[in-house]
Each structure stands twice: as structure tokens, then as C-alpha cells.
């Protein structure tokens, strides 16, 4: 185990674009199934399905472990700092800084993902010193392609990332946004 401190603060609250991105708390657990237990999220993301209260507690524990390890942060997407409407994730890896997101079905159509990606990208550039932020998504996921485009990302000329998850094959495109 490394003795290196996590690059992430113990608590994090980011504001901008009319959003407040904040840490998940125990009080959010009852709201999480309504956000994440949906066929679209089950299909397009690695989030477990079905997503019930037990899965919510496991996700909260995983979030805290990944942050402590310095691997990733998962923040609730809110407009007021209170009710969670979705999630944005930042993962640091040797190949770069990656973002991911999921917005609850009842809260779509408000550009929440686009705005959350912009706020988290600014954090990655300004606070973490990232040179490039990437999104990895399937070309068939029209909603995520629209988020990438609207947030200013461009499709990179790199090989597809292929694999299998939840019993189905996937091929991920890499979209990037460079600092400056």
C-alpha cells in the first residue's frame, strides 16, 4: 500500500454552471435507486443493476475507498446542494483523467450532464493540473455523444477500447478536451 496522500480533498464541493457538485452522503442513499435503477443506466454504464438500497450503500463505500486511494471521486450533481439528480465521476489513471456521468431519468433534458462535465473538467485542469480530460463512450449512445459535443470535447483518433461488461460487448470511443 502506498503512503502517498490522495490528491483529492477529504470533502469536495464544486459550483458553477448553475450546479453544485458535492460529496455523496448517507442521507442520499434512499434517493440513489431512483437515479440509477434504470434500463439506460444499466445498459450504458458499469453501474450495477438492479440498483437498490444495498447497491447504494456499496456505491457510497466504493466512492469513499476510491477517493482515499486517490483513484477517483464521485460527486452528486445538484442544483441547490441538496437533492441529488445524478452523478459525475473523475478518475485518474496512467493514461489520463477520465470523466463519467449518469443523470437520473426524471432529471434529463436540463443539460445537467453537460454542465457537470464542464465544472468537473475545469476542476481537473485548474486543481489537478490535467493536460487533457477524456470521455469514453459508445458511438451508439447518442445522448452521451451530444454531451461530449456540447461540452466542447472532440473525438480523438485513437483505437477503440473494446471489452465485455454485463454480458454484452462494447466498443468505446475516446473524446478529449485539452487544457487551454
TrEMBL record:
Single GO cellular component term: cytoplasm
Key words, A-Z: Transferase
SUPFAM superfamilies the UniProt entry points to: Acyl-CoA N-acyltransferases (Nat)
Metal-binding keyword on record: no
Residues in N-acetyltransferase domain copies: 19-171
GO molecular function, one term: protein N-terminal-serine acetyltransferase activity
Pfam family for this entry, one: Acetyltransf_3
Domain of life: Bacteria
InterPro entries given in the database record: Acyl_CoA_acyltransferase (IPR016181), GNAT_dom (IPR000182), Ribosomal_N-acetyltransferase (IPR051908)
Name this polypeptide is given: GNAT family N-acetyltransferase
Lineage: Bacteria, Bacillati, Actinomycetota, Actinomycetes, Kitasatosporales
Amino acid at each position: 500500500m502506498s503512503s502517498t496522500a490522495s490528491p483529492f480533498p477529504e470533502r469536495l464541493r464544486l459550483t458553477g454552471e448553475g450546479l453544485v457538485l458535492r460529496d455523496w452522503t448517507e442521507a442520499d442513499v434512499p434517493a440513489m435507486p431512483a437515479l440509477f435503477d434504470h434500463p439506460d443506466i444499466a445498459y450504458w454504464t458499469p453501474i450495477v443493476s438492479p440498483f437498490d438500497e444495498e447497491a447504494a450503500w456499496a456505491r457510497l463505500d466504493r466512492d469513499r475507498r476510491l477517493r482515499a486511494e486517490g483513484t477517483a471521486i464521485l460527486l452528486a450533481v445538484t442544483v441547490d446542494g441538496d437533492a441529488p439528480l445524478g452523478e459525475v465521476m473523475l478518475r485518474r489513471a496512467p493514461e489520463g483523467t477520465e470523466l463519467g456521468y449518469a443523470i437520473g431519468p426524471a432529471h434529463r433534458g436540463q443539460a445537467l450532464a453537460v454542465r457537470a462535465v464542464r465544472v468537473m473538467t475545469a476542476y481537473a485542469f485548474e486543481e489537478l493540473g490535467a493536460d487533457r480530460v477524456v470521455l469514453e463512450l459508445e458511438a451508439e449512445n447518442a445522448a452521451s455523444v451530444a454531451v461530449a459535443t456540447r461540452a466542447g470535447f472532440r473525438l480523438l483518433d485513437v483505437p477503440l477500447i473494446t471489452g465485455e461488461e454485463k454480458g454484452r460487448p462494447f466498443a468505446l470511443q475516446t473524446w478529449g478536451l485539452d487544457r487551454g
